[in-house]
Design a protein that fits this description.
By secondary structure, the protein is α+β, with helices and mostly antiparallel strands. The protein contains four helices and four strands; from the N terminus they run βαββααβα. The protein has a single domain, classed as Alpha-Beta Plaits (2-Layer Sandwich), CATH 3.30.70. It has a four-stranded antiparallel beta sheet with strand order 2-3-1-4. About 15% of the residues are buried.
Length: about 120
């Protein structure tokens, strides 16, 4: 079970680079799809957000094993994907996330430790 994820978020498209942004998005989806087919990640979900007055325009959520996600995040290919994205969208960012059993474990740690400060 995939208890870890990478959140890859982006903001508005750079004005004048709309066509390139569509191309980079397609290339990125193909790369993430290849990672899933190869079993490196257990899944990827893309999201576009409706206008909301904030800086986040959309994101990918890559699910997988902690070690695999760490390898991917530090790979040259992933770095190039993020660099290409940064040339066509504003505010690109990558953030590690937890879910499932790992989230429950961390919540248990939090509840235990928070009692020390009550």
């Amino acid at each position: 079970m995939a208890d870890h994820a990478l959140f890859v978020g982006w903001g508005a498209v750079v004005t004048g680079r709309e066509q390139q942004a569509a191309t980079v998005f397609g290339e990125t989806m193909a790369y993430f799809g290849r990672l899933q087919q190869q079993g490196e990640i257990s899944g990827v979900d893309p999201f576009f957000l409706e206008p909301h007055g904030g800086e986040l325009g959309g994101f990918f959520l890559l699910r997988g094993d902690l070690d695999a996600l760490a390898r991917i995040r530090t790979s040259q290919e992933f770095g190039r994907v993020i660099l290409r994205a940064s040339m066509v969208v504003h505010n690109i960012g990558v953030v590690a996330a937890t879910t499932g059993d790992e989230l429950a474990r961390q919540l248990g740690d939090y509840q235990q430790l928070s009692g020390e400060f009550a």
